[in-house]
Amino acid sequence: MDSVIDLCSSSDEDEASLSDVSLATQQGEGDAYNEVKSSSLLEDGAVTSSSGAVVTPVPAKVKSESDASTGVPAPCKKKARMFVGDCVEYCPDKKVTVKSQDYKYETDSEESKKDELQSGSKAAEDPVVKEEPTYEALQKRQAKFSRKYGDRVLLARQSADGMMKLGGGNQSMELYPKDSDQRRARMGGRYAKAYSSKWNFGAPQYAGQLSAHVSDYPGRDGEVEIDPEETPFSVFVQRCTGSSTLGWEYCGEYVILNDLLGVTAAFSIPESNKRSLLADMKKSLSRPGGLWHEIVEWWRYNIVELCENDSSPPGPTRLIRLANGEPEPNDSGKAREERLNRESSEKATDAAKARALGLDNLHLSEVEFCERLIHYDDLYGSYAIQFRHYDEEMYDFVKAGMTTKNKANKTRNIDEDEPCAKASDWYNHVDQKI
Fold this sequence. Notes:
Elements: E1 4-6, E2 40-41, E3 47-48, E4 54-55, E5 81-84, E6 86-90, E7 95-98, H1 110-119, H2 135-146, H3 180-184, E8 192-195, E9 211-214, E10 233-241, E11 244-256, E12 262-263, H4 271-285, H5 291-309, H6 317-323, H7 333-344, H8 350-357, H9 366-373, E13 381-389, H10 392-398, H11 423-433
Parallel strand pairs: 8-10
Antiparallel strand pairs: 1-7, 2-3, 3-4, 5-6, 6-7, 9-13, 10-11, 11-13, 12-13
Helix pairs in contact: 4-9
């Protein structure tokens, strides 16, 4: 129950005074209470307590002529507030009500409201600005919502207890034997692919991702009979942090949306990725039986045939400049902006791009050919794939072949059964990059 005391004096003097006044609040925590004794009203409207504390009523001006009809000083006709530990409110009946700390003061005097409207003192509410999430935030939120398999272990590519059980070479993209009888002898003849993160920039970022892009699919070369638009195949994707492989993730069963080749513009590929690809090419070419000897031969044959059937002049300008080792023009401001707009709008056929890079030159060495090939758009062709389901049987078949890395991407202590890296460790790495 609130305590009330008489605050306004009925003295005829202009300055009101108070003496032996005490204010008490309701009993609070620890049975404590606030008390102000021997208070007095100052000329500026402040109230001082015996402890020396000063509080200011609102409005602060107390010294005023008395109302002719009531004899009550004018400030007592309006509600006001002051703070002495708790919230204290002036009342027209010359009483003060001590409220609790969470009291919210509201003026209900009609005269006060009119004064506020006339003076324009009532501040307009600040407009509320709604912040829309960024694309990165939406992408991160959607990915986290869809990640159902973060507890699954990452795999070692060359483990005889895991992915190698599926067949194919220990560095091959194909994870199935070419012989149909051998393929049917395990997992019912299942087809599977292992996608390197260096070559497959659009591969699934997490198991169960609804759609993605990959550079190859089972049956594309015609060596095996499969309809990839109807028959799902298992997808494994390499997970790297920096230049080090954390492990491989089984992402689920996918099908090809169609056999149309999509192309990623070479200039949009980071230079770090291009250097990594070129290093792999050179490493392969340094071995007599390296796979890239055959790949270079295949590219050369197709490009020469393409140029024989298309006589388009070399282009665009940026590729000609790149092939000739010419630096980018040292322009700036409007001139640079106009040049970039002009070059970006240049159209060129695949044959024109090949000529601009000099890929039709049969005198180039294999290494020189690859140094130019990494800037050719068609090198980064990809096919759209769609998620069908996550096969627990496939995961159980390979899960014993765990990665040799721990979650910090360090070689784990197998003798002490140190846990291996899991899919969730890779997801955390992706989130930090975003």
